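Thread: Newbie trying to understand structure tokens

Hi all, I'm a second-year student working on a class project, and my supervisor (Dr. K.) asked me to get a predicted structure for one chain before our next meeting. I've only ever worked with sequences, so writing a 3D structure as a token string is new to me. If someone could post the tokens and maybe explain what I'm looking at, I'd be very grateful. Here's the chain:
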Amino acid sequence: MTQNWSRTLIVSLSLALCLAFILPQHTTRAQDDDAPSMLFDVISDECNALIDLYFPDLETLLTRTDINSTTFFFDSFALIRSTPVLQTTQWWPQDSPAFGNLLRYHIVSPGYYPTALLFSSGISVLPTNYTPASLGNRPQRLVFTRNATTGGLRVNGVASPRQFVVPNGVAHDIHDSVLIPPLMSIVGVLNNLTASTSTFLTLLNQAGLNSTIAADGGFTVFAPTNAAFNALQQNNPSTYQAIISSPAILLQVLNYHISQDLFYVGEPGSASTISTLAGSNITVSNTTGILMVANSSLISANNLARNGVVHLATSVLFPPGFQINLRTVLNGVNATVFVKQMDAANLSSLLNDTTSNHTVFAPQDSYFGNMSSSVNLSADLLSYHVVDNYLMLANLTDGMLLKSHLTLVSLGGNNQVLKVSIQNGTTYINNQAIRLPDRVATNGVVQILTGPLTLPPNATAVLRGDPTFSSLLSLLMTAVGTLPNATNTVSPTPTPPMNGTTTSPSPTNATNTMSPTPFMNGTTSVSPMPMNGTSPMVSRPPTTSGTVSPAPMNSTSAPMTSGSPSMNATTTVSPSPTPANSTRALVRSTSDNDAIDHVLRAVNDTAETIGDDVDRFFGVTLFAPSNSAIANLSAAVLSYLGSPRAASDLFNLIEYHLVPMQNGTILYSTNIPSGVSNYTTLDGESLSINKPSNASMGPIVLNGQARVTRADNLTAEGVIHTIDTFLFPPSWAWDLRKVLISLNCTTFLDLVTAANLTYLLTPNARNNYTLFAPTNAAFNNLTMMPSGDALRRIIMYHFVAGTYMRSNLSDGQLLTTILPADDQVDAQVVKVTVTGQQVRINTINTTSFDNTAVNGVVHTLSSVLVPPTSILQILKSTPQFSMFYSFVMSAGLNTILESGEYTVFVPTNEAMLYMNEYTRQFLVRPSALPYLFNVIAQHIIPQLVMVQQLPQGASTLTSYNNLTVSILRSSTNTFSLNNAAANITATNIIASNGVVHTINRVLNWTALYDFTLVRTLYQVGATRFVDALDQANMTSTFIVPNSSYTVFTPTNDAFPLVLPTGSGLVNLIKLHYVNGYHVTANMYDGELEITTLFQPTLNGYQRLKISDTSSYLGITAGGSQAEIIIPDQVVYNGKGAVHVIDRILTLPGNILSLLPSNSTLLSLINLSASNSLYNTNGITVLMPSENAFQSLSDGVLTYLQASNTQSLADLNDILSHFVLKQLLYSDNMTSVAQQYVSNLGDSVSLAEIHSDTGASIIKASTTGRPDSDATSTRIDLLASNGVAHELDQVLFPNNFYFTIEKVMTILSSGKFAYYMEKAGQSDFLDSTNDDPFTILIPTDAAFNTDVPDLDRLQRNELVKMMQNHVIQGSVILTPGMEDLESWNNRKLLISTDDLSNYLTVNLEGNVLPSHVAVVVGGPYICSNGVVYQVSHVVKREGNSELQVGTVASLILVCFLFFLFVVSLGTYILNWYRRSAYESV
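---
Reply by user tm_fold:
Sure, no problem. This is what the structure looks like when written as tokens:
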């Protein structure tokens, strides 16, 4: 309420003072002025001296006698009427500089322009004294016209009925209005004239000039009318089309209509030549009585704007020398880089040609970005962008070929062509989309592309860039790899040329690697057309009936050939004669990585050697099989063609897909005649092409089977047509040699060649053969092969006369090889073994079957067929038996396996690894030889046992060391040994002295010897622990086999590199050694294990603690925590157990080391200097947790940390009470509470119970103290000098209670205690627990500010005031408590502060908020009450000051209202006097 009164007073006083000051001054000036004699007098009389009052500089101007001025004035009523308008513009308030500018707009100085002079001189525009920044600080103008009816003067359309001519000028009266300077920009003026200028305004916006002419600075705009543009469109449509379609031309033309010179029609001294934004001048003339600007007349002039002026023109203005040919259009659409390149290449005549029309495909400058200055396009590439005739977008159809102006030697002097394609409504020229179509010139048309065209590259680059031909390209790389100076490295697709130096431009009809620069001018981006590999063109699926692919052969199969199509009604076309210019230079200069060029080069070189006319390889046509065409070949043929061994054959096949230029004509699809024609390919064989007379009748077909699915992929040498079937010439056949190559049996093929037996592979051989051919992988395990006759015998051992398919082979079948009989080795027969789907030849697995050829069949083998050898040699030569062979040698069993007759079950290396590394290490120790002998000997059976001889079900065999080996043969003919301890994985490996079967496990190795501790440690890999036992001499003296024990052994990696020595090493071992047999099944979380390490600081043996969770089993000695990673390794029939842990156990620190550095308990111990007590040996500490301290009631912890004499004494007692001077682990306690004496002497009750989950919990309390009851949160925290149990509560001794008196020691309450004692009220502060009180203690600062003279207060008043702070009982204050009284029966009000939300205390009846006591501390819960600290003294206050303040405020308001009434009366009186003066 006080604030509202203040605001009212300020507003009223301000209004009164303003009216009292302003109104008398205006009235005085009006009364003092006499008859007008100067301009200023006229204005003062008519405008009430406002100019003089606010703008004395204008007064000075209008009273000068040395210059004449012309002014236009208005009366005060006009100003008042205009005030709503002015207030909505920038010209208000009237005391601002803006209002001064408004007045200056009414003044022309210097200048003397009475009405008669204006009419007689033809002046229609004058500059004013207002020079706004929007006109570049140049004068804003006034426009004068003559009223057609009255003949009177009009200024900006406002009538001026009279004028006053005075010695220093003339004043025109416009009392009805105020002249307001133009507010709209030129764009706004044009919008107001939109009926006449809408076309011009639209084009300005399109050219981005609307923002230019809307900006400050001052512009003159000659705006052609809509009729002017309509006339241009009708009379010169190509010019009109060029203007609206070319941003640059449009900008050039529009800039010619805009000037930064200010030109006003009818202004004295205006210029006749005006510069324009286009850079050329424009001339204004009036020779015929009609005002002309350039070639146009003005029909509406002087349309004023805030930032200039607009004149309407009857024609569109063009800069001098303006014309629109192809050059102009290109420049106009921002293709200036292309134009400059054409000029530099001496090709400008194509752009300026007036005798013929051309179509130019060109990129815009934005494509080149900041590289525009360094672009250097070759003349060839530029010529490739120009074609003859006038081709609009509508004239371009899908698949059309356009002949460019580029002629190439590589094309036999033919013109290189462009290919049109239309995808998803977008037209593409090669791989560039037409971005801006149909930019018309008088000599042609421009089609703007997304980027420059690239010259079609050589055929290899096209293939490389198109994923459709990746398979063909791979075959080409294989083929050219055998040519001289050729490499198999495929260079990356080159970057499109930015100059004339790039030798291999990116493909035109292949995947484009040249991404156009993103458009810069806000145009819609047109993505380049998908290239050949991703084109959505749909190809018909290949027909399998006509596809040439090898079929499986049998003994009677004829050689496979590709049949020639019917030649009926065909036309044979001979290769074309040699062109005048040779292509040899072109072929020689290409990269060695260009595969097609390598083909051409090789053909040329071959032709040279036979004297052929070699220069005939211009305009080459490649019929390129697609990926799917190659994928449709059989897997065998694909494998063959992909082999480097087939490169020569593959080379010939590639030649069969190449057709040279015919009769000077490249075989574009449009040049192939309808019907069937025969052509000679580069390999000299005939190719038939059948083209339907109508495209709707189907595609072009080659050899009656391969269809052209995509035609006319342009290349530097000619053209590529995609076909759906791979072509084979008539002479090609699929024989055994090709089959071997396809199966990757090339090593065997080389050996056949080395043995001079290749005649066996050719179709001209006398017989068909069945060939058992080892794969290349079969030779990986052979270090060498014999030579000469020995090699020849081995090779012939793989050939069987006749054709035997897989279906002809049966188990036990003997096949006679072509190896002649020999007296020493009966090796001419091989044995077939069939087990399910598996077929073996002798003991060798077959890996594939029925690989047919025209002269036989091939079955591949996993190994080479060789004469049998001894078992020992088989073990030695077979890599997967190397570990078993090593054990055989170590056990001394090698001699028996060199002769005699044995069956050996051989564990593979993988099976041997199932015995862990340390067991294997143990077995090769000299002392373990008997064990090793028994392990190996049980795998040797002294008789020949073929698995086919074993009966179904169980049977037994006797091993070399007289152990029984049981064998179980299942109904599915699988074999297992010794009750499935091992399975037979490979059978019947024939040797000269028996047979070998492989198994997947070592037989019974864990049961052959009794494992002592040392052997067990070896078994689990703990050899470093064995080393430690040896080094400490504890192997036999400390480890007693007949006693029960448990060892926690660290892994080898956990041991330090250097072991400790002496007692340190002994203690380390003892820490890991526990008496008794403990397996993990009997361990539980928190269990304590007693080690054999005696600790003097514990007065007993060090313990280990088990940690058992759902995911973790570990153990600790109190130091490091180790995880049991290999549990329960039983030693010596259950006498001992070994558990492998992942780290070495370390001894714990003392009790204090268990506490974090920031723990409350540690800080209290340090504060009380009780460290020595906690370092005592053999103690138990009942350690409160951090939460226990933090959950103490307010003030208790603060008191304990206070460091005063009383608090330190209490703290020492409490810390001493936590310590029991005996070692008490949880397993020493019982479920019935037992009494123990603390170091302080109090009795402490302890009991161990179990939670619902079975975990051990300790319950603790101080005997005789009912408020003491704690539960453990962690137990058995091991330390070097004892054990600690963490509790959830602080156990206080019997001699400590937190009282009101102790609270006062930590609060700022000295004055409260003083005045309580002075008032005789100290008994309230040391009351007993049975008679509690609640005390409100003000801060010492509160006494200083609230009751500074309290010492002079009478004692009975002091007693009342101090009793205001005492409440009976222990009370927790809450807002809104009722019936709460102080000790002296005064009612206390409890509420919350509006701002802080703190509790507040006040006496009932107090009204001033300054004495409300805010609770700033507490509640402090004490044993004898509750304490709160408050911010003010609780006392009673009066309200007389409020009454006096209110009366004074009312008197002041009344006085100010009186002043306001007097001022208002004065204003009314002055207004009346002025009205009377004006009437006079």
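A couple of things are worth pointing out once you decode it. Residues 691 and 700 are 5 Å apart (CA to CA). The radius of gyration is 57 Å. Feel free to ask follow-ups in this thread.
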